[in-house]
Design brief:
heterodimer; A: alpha+beta; five-stranded antiparallel β-sheet; 31 strands; globular; B: 185 residues; Rna Polymerase Sigma Factor, Chain: A; Arc Repressor Mutant, subunit A; 73% helix
């Protein structure tokens, strides 16, 4: 039987099936109009009329985000930057982690109390959490004027003009040898970029999750590398742009390779500017979007001419290509100048041709398999933790074609359900299935470990590797899988194995409960135990006293 | 304007009938046609053809659901044009997404093509649909009968696009299993 025969059989369905499906009218005018804009090109009258609807008043005057910097005295440099030193630096993460969590909870509490907080926005949104469409090709040639019409579509008035968008920070970062955004010297580089952890370094310091600066050269009385909180202002709520913690924690994004500066990250405070900067090779943060591209992207979100604020969740360069994936959140306002909904977008940008497509928003950290040219986007299925994801796998060879608006390739090539931990190794996705109780509590030892191999045919691509596994927090480095196990209290381990789960080696054992495992720099790892201490795992162990953060 | 009012205009041979029908159902027709032909120009032409035919036949026909009536007509015209393109080996090179998706249902491990009795297949398909909850059944029909885009289905059903995707993926898998069980694969 062919698909066409099945299609024809569906075409012979009796009337009651057909009428049942179309029985309900479109439930919401707004959604109808949204779909209009998604489906219709600018040539369709309905969409054009709709886009010409009066625009509500601009709600607030958003300040142009300008990163302030502090210029501390440059500490003495050291040429010794060994792995142990790096690990020692990152070993302080747990203290920062605890501190950060405390601060985050405070900030969330403050934020929740604020009218129109981001938490409120999400709760108030009743729009489907993601949108899939292709942008009309004809828009790619749109005007570069800052006002006026483009192909008959009026540009939203609140799109920042070019001067506002690209007003650089006074000194967004220093050139090599100069003072950079974080107050250190030299180029800021990403040391670790895992969910929940962003560790940067420059010539002078490591920067842990935006909260702590650890000098590479200054030791304390115990002989440990000396660290200090980035923000030492008593009572600081870390919500203003004169706070270095705020700037680092809320405005820096990394895809592991490039560093980006944003107006506001998702967990940061909204209502800042909407621009995105990318650090170039000399350490300067340059505007990521061209003015024309930025306007077209923003215009595409403004199907109903409501005002928008943008915050960014992920930016990911797809290998060495000119294509970038950006997950962002657009906040829309109603005529009463109250933020009334948030829509989540994923944007695929081809920087070379300045074309783009709107696709799935990824709640989880997106991954890119350069070998197979596959983009893994993770859409959460609920708001609880641990998260369940629908992993949508996009074949970029097809997506590249999809920039032609007449081709419908918005469907992912494959979708699989993925539990909270996942990692890519040798072009295969390793992940767990659902293993929680009714209260969504993780049940160690009940998970099954799966592998998705894109080289196999669809029916056999997903392989069960191990049922009821004790492996947790799986991550990949150095050609091996790393994970923690929790056989019983006092028997926690960090182990590694070959991709086929053979050749298991115990990397570290502890009587403590290992809470998290982060890859820092192959093959060094840290874990966080029950007492918020951190150990370096590169074959050696170095415990750092966390009392500094109390 | 209600369907009854539109039909009355057709009966009265009032030319506003076409414009009003275009305003109310033009988008639906374009979406159905686009879903099958994957070409916007074709979708526009098919929609115009549907309206022309509606002008011809609607005085005699009194459909209970005008939207479904027009959508069915659109599907039939679009399928005919797809056949023409297939025969002529043209059509913009774009294969309808719905056919790609349905290929999942027809794929079998042995990859042996069976000659299918159309009536038996129709029965099996109805069995499959009758066993589904209404929401899943209507999502299936909206996608594979009307070839509507996923955001449109999501909006109509007031669910997320991703839920539609997952639902369809599972339905395709179940249909594949059902067709295997019934001996079609």
């Amino acid at each position: 039987m062919t698909e066409r025969e099945l299609f024809d059989a569906i075409g012979r369905l009796p009337e009651h099936y057909r009428t049942e499906a179309l029985a309900l009218e479109q439930p919401c005018t707004e959604q109808k109009n949204e779909i209009d804009a998604l489906f219709d090109s600018a040539s369709h009258t309905e969409a054009v009329q709709y886009r010409k609807a009066p625009e509500p008043e601009k709600p607030v005057n958003r300040p142009v985000a300008v990163l302030r910097k502090t210029v501390p005295q440059k500490p003495q440099k050291s040429g010794i930057l060994g792995l142990t030193a790096i690990a020692a630096a990152v070993a302080l993460t747990v203290g920062v982690f605890a501190w950060k969590m405390r601060q985050d909870s405070e900030m969330q509490g403050n934020s929740a109390a604020m009218p129109g907080s981001s938490a409120d926005y999400v709760q108030q949104s009743d729009i489907p959490a993601e949108t899939v469409t292709m942008l009309p090709e004809e828009q790619s040639g749109s005007s570069t004027q800052t006002t006026g019409q483009t192909d008959g579509i009026p540009l939203p008035e609140d799109v920042p003009d070019a001067d506002e968008m690209f007003t650089p920070s006074p000194d967004p970062t220093g050139k090599n040898g100069g003072v950079n955004t974080m107050g250190g010297h030299g180029l800021l580089k990403t040391v670790s970029n895992t969910p929940g952890t962003l560790i940067l370094e420059d010539d002078d310091n490591w920067y842990i999750n935006g909260g702590t600066r650890i000098s590479k050269t200054v030791h304390n009385a115990n002989g440990h590398l000396y660290g200090e909180l980035l923000c030492q202002k008593p009572g600081c709520a870390h919500q203003l742009d004169d706070c270095p913690y705020f700037n680092c924690h809320n405005r820096l994004l990394s895809d592991g390779k490039n560093l980006y500066m944003t107006g506001a990250k998702l967990d940061g405070v909204p209502n800042l500017d909407q621009t995105l900067f990318k650090q170039d090779e000399s350490g300067i943060f340059e505007p990521f979007f061209s003015p024309d591209l930025y306007k077209r992207v923003i215009t595409s979100f403004k199907q109903n001419n409501q005002l928008t604020e943008i915050s960014y969740a992920y930016v990911l360069q797809l290998g060495d290509t000119d294509t970038f994936y950006i997950a962002l959140r657009a906040t829309f306002y109603n005529a009463a100048n109250t933020a009334n909904e948030v829509r989540l977008f994923g944007v695929l940008l081809d920087k070379k041709s300045d074309r783009f497509a709107i696709t799935l928003y990824s709640d989880g950290k997106p991954l890119y398999d350069a070998e197979h040219e596959l983009l893994y986007l993770f859409e959460s299925d609920g708001n609880y933790y641990p998260r369940y994801y629908n992993a949508c796998i996009y074949d970029m060879k097809q997506i590249a074609l999809s920039y032609d608006p007449e081709q419908d390739v918005t469907e992912p090539a494959e979708m699989i359900s993925v539990f909270h931990a996942y990692t890519l190794l040798d072009g295969k996705l390793y992940y767990y299935n659902d293993c929680t109780d009714a209260a969504y509590r993780l049940l160690p030892g009940e998970c099954s470990l799966y592998c998705y191999d894109p080289e196999k045919d669809r029916d056999h691509a997903v392989m069960l590797l191990e049922e009821k596994t004790n492996r947790m927090d799986i991550t990949a480095a150095d050609g091996r899988l790393y994970y923690r196990t929790h056989a019983s209290v006092g028997k926690d381990k960090i182990c590694s194995c070959a991709p086929d789960l053979t050749d298991e080696q115990v990397v570290y054992e502890t009587p403590q409960v290992i809470r998290n495992l982060y890859p820092i720099e192959d093959p060094a790892f840290i874990h966080i135990d029950a007492e918020a201490s951190i150990f370096l795992l590169d074959g050696t162990e170095e415990k750092i006293d966390a009392s500094f953060y109390d | 304007m209600t369907d009854a009012e539109l039909l009355a205009l057709f009966v009265q041979r009032d030319e506003r009938a076409v414009a009003e029908t275009q305003a109310k159902y033009g988008r639906l027709c374009r979406q159905v046609a686009y879903g099958i032909l994957a070409n916007q120009q074709d979708a526009e032409e098919i929609t115009n053809d549907v309206l022309m035919r509606a002008w011809d036949v609607l005085p005699q026909e009194q459909p209970k659901n005008l939207g479904a009536f027009l959508a069915v007509m659109t599907r039939n015209l679009s399928t005919n044009r797809l056949d023409q393109y297939t025969a002529q080996r043209r059509g913009g090179g774009a294969r309808p997404a719905v056919l790609d998706e349905l290929a999942e249902c027809t794929a079998s491990a042995e990859n042996v093509e069976h000659t299918v009795d159309a009536r038996m297949l129709d029965d099996a398909l109805r069995q499959f649909l009758d066993a589904l909850p209404a929401e899943q059944r209507t999502v299936f029909v909206l996608r594979y009968y009307y070839a509507l885009p996923l955001p449109e289905i999501a909006a109509r059903k007031q669910i997320g696009v991703s839920k539609v995707k997952v639902m369809l993926m599972r339905l395709r898998k179940r249909l594949n299993e059902h067709l295997k069980k019934e001996g079609f694969l």
